[in-house]
Amino acid sequence: MRSTVQRSAGRARGAHRRVPFAAALLAGLLCSALAAPSVRAESGYRLWLRYTPVHGAWLTRYRHAATELVAGGGGTAGAPGASGAPALSATLRAARSELLRGLSGLLGRPPRLKRTVTGDGAILFGTPRSSALIRTLPLHLARTGDQGYLIRTLQVHGHRTIVIAARRDIGVLYGVFAFLRLLQTRRPVDHLDILSRPKIRRRVLDFWDNLDGTVERGYAGDSIWKWDELPEYLSPRYTDFARACASIGINGVVLNNVNASPFILEPLYLVKVAALARVLRPYGIRVYLSVPFSAPITLGKLASADPLDPAVQAWWGRKVAQIYRYVPHFGGFLTKADSEGEPGPAQYGRTQAQGANLLARALAPYGGIVMWRTFVYSTNPHSEDRVKQAYDLFKPLDGKFDPNVILQNKNGPLDFQPREPFNPLFGAMPKSNEMLELEITKEYLGQQTSLVYLGPLFEEALRADTWAMGRGSTVARIIDGSLYGQRDTAIAGVANIGSDRNWCGSIFNQANWYVFGRLAWNPDASARRLATQWVRMTFTNRPAFVRPALKMMMRSREAAVDYMDPLGLASQMAAGTHFGPGPWVHPGRNFPPDWSSTYYNRATAQGIGFNRTATGSDAVAQYAPHVAAQFASLAACPQDLLLWFHHLSWTDRLRSGRTLWDSLVRHYDRGVTTVKWMRKTWAGLAKYVDPQRYRLTADFLDIEVRDAEWWSDASIAYFQSLNKLPLPPGAAAPPDSLKAYEAFCIPYVEGSPGAGPACAPADIPVPR
After folding, report:
1. What is the mean pLDDT of residues 75-84?
2. What percent of the chain clears pLDDT 70, i.e. is strictly above it?
3. Top-level CATH class of 65-196?
4. Helix ranges (DSSP H) in 216-351
5. Given the residues 385, 415, 558, 640, the one annotated as active site
6. Position 762 pLDDT exceeds 70
């Protein structure tokens, strides 16, 4: 535990992961923005849009396919010409700029700008509206929809041409990024015929950023939104953020925390929101706002926020009209109500549907939507089972929500745990719009420093089969509208982006932003394939690096589950900070029962696990009969969810033939072993990575090894104190006593809303 104590002491001093101001300033002067890809500094700022030079045969091949750049038929690239071709829109200018930036970086020189195709190797981009030449081509662009694109190799004026076209300007921009992705990952571009359109209409990042610049559950520095500088100063970082989002298809941003401040709705801040919206708009990104349900009281000075009160309804109508005057393309509201102390309709005896519809009706005339979070639960100390509460509250309301309300369900019924079963609300509300909320920021998965690629978790959530309409009723088919015919579809991810130079705190955390956007575009995509793309664009295309790095990523999430919450355990983290182990955390003055670890592990001298079968809380009954039967059966229940649904004796035999206790210990050990293997693997890749990004990742893997050992040792020590059983052969005993693990406390953790467990730096044990 010595290294963990040293680490936390550094955090308490404010030294953890911080760079002296002078060094940070120098680094900022030396490192260019994304807009200057020729600079070789590798801080991680350029993300997966590095556009590093292509060499060898690929360079010859690509240069031959990118000799000319044609933005339209008639007129120059960007201005009206004699033929009356319209000037390029802001979005098409962004597409042209990206092509010039990307091709210059990849090929060493930009293509020649032309008015029309004059030779082989031209790239023609645009829409039928922007280009008379594109209008003459047999492209059948209706198939692309409003956001999709087509990339095809055609003969234009007798010359071999790559055409990037779409019905709408934003589709062209998405197509440009897709084309550059082919070059970055060294894919052939000689005979292209690609048609792609998003399966989900709204692909949104939820920022949990506060107006004071802090970020709840943010592990990459302060907020990127500098409210004190807006609207006068628009940081170039905002445009770089928009480029990165557009490159993976994200088209919506909730600017502020779901635990919202009402002042975001005041004109003082709306003018700032409008300034951000203008920067993001050319990249296809709409802004949304989180709003507190009590805003009519705090801002409007009304006596209540009752959704059936005409005065409250009128106030929201006026406020929404005001917002649209500032932000004409405003997307709508995200609301957290009646949850974790946030106000909501329940305090007026109203339903969640009545609360959501209040906001929806104010937004409807403008085409706005309400994303209404279903993360609602009571803090009743006698609650039978917290994971049942959202279903019990929302299921009876199916069909009572207005058409522009989308219920935002977390992937699991609890709270972004390392592994959960799918949320039973998916498939249970066929008459209501439902969207999926995923957590990109790793609140429960090692936060900033642990290397945990979330692609497998996201893929697991999307492919979960609800059996709501028989086999194949996956969560993906519910949220993309194909199961129930939902038209306004959506998905959200809690952002992991901050003011750190590398955006996400660590280099590999960038992969979670990337995979969310790509899976939001196509929920059926492969997390492994997307990881491969990300590695190739972010580091190198050399197989000697790509293969081991990909293997690390694909094993990382399961390793974290093993050393944190194996076999279906959940919420075993230290209270408050959600950092580090705390399986012993009992209900207390500051921790209601369902905020404590022992509520979920139910560990005693006899056994462990939460019985959610018919003889327990019967949470299995919230699932479709086929799924319920599987979860309720010891023989059929997936082993990785065993203790989520069943309470077992420590000596019960699992399908492996081992006892439950032996299996738990082996999982903890396997998690530690895997992380050590990841560290060793990374050490062998140093020659393929620039020193700055290599060293950061190596240091963070050192931290993760220490944290994994801490998790494993503390968990085994606690559970062994209950069951008194010997460790399986070959397993090492924890190096410290249970008392030492329980006494250890981290008073401050980046991104936590409070100080966590009550302790002071003086209480931290001194390293021996």
Report:
1. 42
2. 90
3. alpha beta
4. 236-248, 267-280, 295-298, 310-326
5. 415
6. no
pLDDT of residue 391 exceeding 70, the answer is yes
The answer to whether residue 340 is catalytic is yes
What integer pLDDT is reported at residue 753 of this predicted model?
A: 77
DSSP H/E element including 437? strand 433-439
**Chain center to CA of 608:** 32
CA distance 509 to 503: 9
Tokens read off for 272: 């700032």
Is-catalytic flag, 443? Answer: yes
What is the CATH architecture assignment of 202-534? Alpha-Beta Barrel (3.20)
CATH number for the domain formed by residue range(s) 562-610+647-763 = 3.90.1330.10
User: Is 60 exceeded by the pLDDT of residue 561?
Assistant: yes
Q: Does residue 277 register a pLDDT over 80?
A: yes
- Residue 484 tokens, joined: 């129930």
Which of the residues 437, 443, 558, 662 is marked catalytic? 443
Query: What's the per-residue H, E or C state across 606-643?
Result: CEECCCCCCCCCCHHHHCCHHHHHHHHCCCCCCHHHHH
Alpha-carbon distance values, 192 to 49, 95, 153 (Å): 22, 19, 5
The pLDDT value given to residue 203: 98
Residues 222, 228, 233, 237, Cα dihedral to 10°: 10
Res 77 pLDDT > 50? no
Give the alpha-carbon dihedral of 392, 394, 396, 399, to 10 degrees. -160
Phi, psi of 560 (to 5 degrees): -65, -40
* Residue of 340, 384, 524, 699 marked catalytic: 340
* CA proximity to 681, closest of 506, 563, 554: 554
Collapsing DSSP states into helix, strand and coil, what is residue 442?
A: coil
Q: Which of 369, 370, 340, 424 is nearest to 595 (CA)?
A: 340
User: Cα separation of 715 and 575, whole Å?
Assistant: 15
Sign of CA dihedral 47, 52, 56, 62: positive
Q: Give the position of tokens 């032996």.
A: 662
Long-range contacts of 37-42 (CB under 8 A, 24+ apart): 37/101, 37/102, 37/104, 37/105, 38/104, 38/105, 41/692, 42/690, 42/692, 42/693
pLDDT at 588: 78
- Residues 715 and 571: beta-carbon distance below 8 Å: no
What does the domain layout of the chain look like in residue ranges?
A: 65-196, 202-534, 562-610+647-763
Q: CB-based contacts of 424: which residues, under 8 Å, 6+ apart?
A: 391, 413, 619, 622, 623
Quick one: average pLDDT of 208-220?
A: 96
Q: What would the pLDDT profile of 323-371 be if each residue is shown by its tens digit?
A: 999 999 999 999 999 988 889 999 999 999 999 999 999 999 999 999 9
The yes-or-no answer on residue 415 being catalytic is yes
How far is the first Cα of the chain from the last one, in angstroms, to the nearest whole number? 10
Our CA dihedral for 393, 394, 398, 400, rounded to 10 degrees, sits at: 80
CA distances from 89 to 85, 142, 529, 616, 626 (A): 12, 21, 34, 61, 52
pLDDT digits (tens, 9 = 90+) for 642-664: 999 999 999 999 999 999 999 99
pLDDT tens digits along 624-634: 999 999 999 99
Per-position DSSP letters for 505-557, written without gaps between them? SSTTTHHHHHHHHHHHH-TTS-HHHHHHHHHHHHT---HHHHHHHHHHHHHHH
Whats the size of the chain, residue-wise? Answer: 768
| DSSP letter, residue 283 | G
pLDDT in tens, 396-420: 999 999 999 999 999 999 999 999 9
Which residue do the tokens 């090492």 mark?
732
